[in-house]
Design goal:
By secondary structure, the protein is mostly helical.
Length: about 150
């Protein structure tokens, strides 16, 4: 690997060498890294989409299995953290179109939704208890599988 001092020895002036971009290698992001990016960092994608839906008076929840599957997809695509946004946009395209202006007040995204096996689940105003029960059941089902 060429070091800046090698370029100076070869005859480049230091002022020019300092203007060259630095290149480094990085390890690929792991699935737990992607999960932290998706959920834990300030301004995470999950918090952004939760706020976006909240502007329309809608509560959106993602199961743990759904979040894990989103991260697995991003890892398989090799897009890193930027790949998460594309996956989220594809995943939430239909709910973002269907929900505003409708009577939907609750949206649940589970692993099957991420895998494309079924559409997002919707509940209307007054069905919050059923929505929370469905989310709890999905979380329990995931723990049983693990």
């Amino acid at each position: 690997m060429v070091e800046p001092s090698d370029l100076v020895k070869y005859g480049f002036i230091p002022e020019f060498v300092s203007r060259l971009p630095s290149i480094t290698t990085l390890a690929p992001l792991t699935i737990p890294d992607l999960r932290r990016i998706l959920t834990d960092v300030r301004g995470s994608l999950i918090s952004q989409y939760t706020a976006l839906f909240r502007y329309s008076g809608v509560d959106i929840k993602f199961t743990s299995a759904a979040l894990d599957q989103i991260c697995r997809k991003a890892s398989e695509r090799g897009g890193g953290a930027r790949g998460l946004r594309g996956i989220m946009e594809n995943l939430l395209l239909e709910p973002m179109y269907e929900v505003p202006g409708s009577n939907v007040r609750y949206v649940l995204i589970d692993e099957d939704v991420v895998l494309g096996e079924k559409p997002a689940m919707y509940w209307s105003k007054g069905e919050g208890t059923a929505f929370r029960a469905a989310w709890t059941n999905e979380e329990r089902r995931k723990r049983v599988r693990v």
